[in-house]
Write a structure and sequence with these properties.
The protein has about 70 residues and is mainly β. About 0% of the residues lie in helices and about 50% in strands. The protein has no helices and four strands.
């Protein structure tokens, strides 16, 4: 299944692409180290992650606390 996992700030700007690949249907774990795609530390606060897989997309909020 093609899987995409992306992190956005609350203004809708892409912060980090955590996953963009084909995975077998199973449980998987992805860890965000709090850095953006350029390696710069993201500030503490609320973020939105968007998971797309198998034709479905789901978005949820998360808090990055340092």
């Amino acid at each position: 299944t093609d899987v995409s996992l992306r992190v956005f700030d609350l203004k809708g700007r892409l912060v980090r692409v955590l996953l963009e690949e084909t995975l077998a249907s199973d449980r998987h774990t992805v860890v965000w180290n709090g850095r953006d795609d350029r390696g710069k530390a993201a500030p503490s606060g609320l973020y939105v992650y968007r998971l797309a897989a198998g034709g479905r997309t789901e978005a949820r909020t998360m808090t990055l606390a340092k």
